[in-house]
Design brief:
One of its GO terms (molecular function) is metal ion binding. The chain has 393 residues and is α+β, with helices and mostly antiparallel strands. It folds into 2 domains: 221 residues, Endonuclease III, domain 1; 134 residues, Nucleoside Triphosphate Pyrophosphohydrolase (Alpha-Beta Complex), CATH 3.90.79.10. The chain contains 16 helices and 7 strands. Strands 1, 2, 3, 4, 5, 6 and 7 form a 7-stranded mixed sheet that branches. Helix 3 packs across helix 4 and helix 3 runs antiparallel to helix 9. It binds a DNA duplex (11 and 11 nucleotides) through helix 3, helix 4, helix 7, helix 9 and helix 10.
DNA sequence: AACTCGGGGCA
DNA sequence: TGCCCAGAGTT
């Protein structure tokens, strides 16, 4: 290990100076984020789960809507999973929402509805690893627990001029020990947040603002002119291209939707029937779509038109989605929740169904189309209830 | 120690 | 299109 790292780990005065500098800076620079206005463990927990692999700006709106709907653990534990997922829709990594929901039930069952205060008990909840447990308990209760995540990996790597891949097991061990070593005895929660804030606002991936960094003087990467090289870049992901087809099956004013099963992507969410297909939307595409729906779901359809083509990414996949508009002809569809969980729903009902993002996008197209088609003469009796869809970005 | 989980935003 | 993001859980 480099000398500066040893200094940080060994010299208590140096560590105290570092902590003081960072905390003082944070006191004047901390952003006003919604989850910083509370010390309620449940609220902090929700924020930390949402923030996993997700940027702050994206989370803010979701956090506020989620807590408005589920203000405490018991409310969340008692909620329908569909409502939980509906509020998570668009945030991605939906397993987080299902695990949060399951953990809420566990908190009610095992801890009387009180969020646990011991590291081991928190760590035992689904979806909570070392980072999240340390974050919740340090921020909420000032327990002296270190954290290590995207921002602080970068900050600490630069601070000690870590030459190795910070993702390696060896480096992680080093970084966790540094995170623990520099953690002051008091204001641990503020300090942990300050470190993340520093990584997010000053010690950025590209062109870090060293001129305004409160700890530039003890930064080894800075001293060695290596801020551009540290942390070592991750090897770029290799994408796999996929082409899939989604079919909008119309029957009167209803549409056929299917719940994604465990083991599939978007498990628990709903989508228009979707399957892997050829790359082009030609004659054979129509035929194979018809055959696929018949053999897969037992539904006979008559293709109407190619509705749209959309591209989206899912982890390491790049998906081109061909969307086919079709009419239901025949075939029995069990309208229940048993797998494969098919349902006929109206456009209005879709507002409450948790859909994957592409499903929501298609729904938007259908609503648009319906509005355009509607002639002034065919006026239906006004609906008394208008359901408001959550805004999609 | 890798790999996967199957996401989404933004320049 | 490439890079990044307040990681967790498995193999």
């Amino acid at each position: 290990m480099d000398v500066p790292a040893d200094d940080l780990l060994r010299s208590a005065p140096l560590r105290r100076k570092l902590a003081r500098s960072i905390l003082t800076w944070f006191d004047g620079a901390a952003r006003d984020l919604p989850w910083r206005r509370t010390r309620d463990l449940y609220c902090i927990w929700v924020s930390e789960i949402m923030l996993q692999q997700t940027q702050v700006a994206t989370v803010v709106g979701y956090y506020e809507r989620f807590l408005a709907a589920f203000p405490d653990v018991r409310t969340l534990a008692a909620a329908d999973e569909a409502r939980v997922l509906r509020l998570w829709e668009g945030l991605g990594y939906y397993r987080r929402a299902r695990q949060l929901h399951a953990a809420a039930k566990q908190v009610v069952a095992e801890h009387g509805g009180e969020f646990p205060r011991s590291y081991e008990a928190v760590r035992a909840l689904p979806g909570i690893g070392r980072y999240t447990a340390g974050a919740i308990l340090s921020i909420g209760l000032d327990q002296r627990l270190p954290i290590l995540e995207a921002n602080t990996i970068r900050v600490l790597s630069r601070l000690i001029a870590l030459r190795d891949d910070p993702r390696s097991t060896q480096s992680q061990l080093t970084l966790w020990s540094v995170a623990e070593a520099i953690l002051p005895a008091e204001r641990c929660g503020a300090f942990n947040q300050a470190l993340m804030e520093l990584g997010s606002e000053i010690c950025t991936p590209r062109e870090p603002q060293c001129a305004t960094c409160p700890v530039a003087v003890c930064c080894a990467a800075r001293a060695q002119g290596l801020t551009k090289e540290i942390p070592l870049a991750a090897k770029k992901t290799e994408y796999t291209d996929l082409t899939e087809t989604a079919v909008v099956v119309r029957r009167g004013n209803k549409f056929l939707v299917r719940q994604c099963q465990p083991g599939e992507r978007w498990a628990g969410l709903w989508d228009f029937p979707r399957f892997a297909s050829a790359a082009v939307a030609d004659e054979s595409w129509l035929t194979s779509a018809r055959e696929h729906l018949a053999s897969w779901l037992g539904v006979q359809i008559e293709p109407i038109a190619h509705l749209t083509t959309t591209r989206h990414g899912v982890t390491r996949y790049r998906i081109t989605l061909q969307v086919l508009d079709a009419r239901y002809v025949s075939g029995k569809v069990a309208d229940d929740l048993a797998p494969p969980s098919l349902r006929w729903v109206t456009l209005a009902e879709l507002a409450e169904v948790p859909l994957c993002v592409t499903g929501r996008k298609i729904t938007g197209l259908l609503a648009e189309k319906k509005t355009k088609q509607k002639s002034p003469v065919q006026k239906k009796p006004a609906r008394t209830k208008v359901k408001r869809a959550q805004p999609t970005r």
